[in-house]
Design goal:
Blueprint: E1 2-9, E2 14-19, E3 24-27, H1 29-34, E4 45-51, E5 58-64
Antiparallel strand pairs: 1-2, 1-4, 2-3, 4-5
Amino acid sequence: MQATAYTYDSETRSGSVLLDDGTPVPFEARAFDAGGLRLLRPGQRVRIEVDGEGEARRITLVTLQTF
């Protein structure tokens, strides 16, 4: 699934993304670390993997979108 980086805190390595419908979804350091990134800037297009649905939905991977 694709999204856009919305917030990122380099101290905690956590933040949030915006889905294409504008829904913000938070991610934890564990998801950021799984993608192997060192930095994330708001506005960057990212690829995410999610687990669960609705209120239980959580991001398990954040990495850069490649074509």
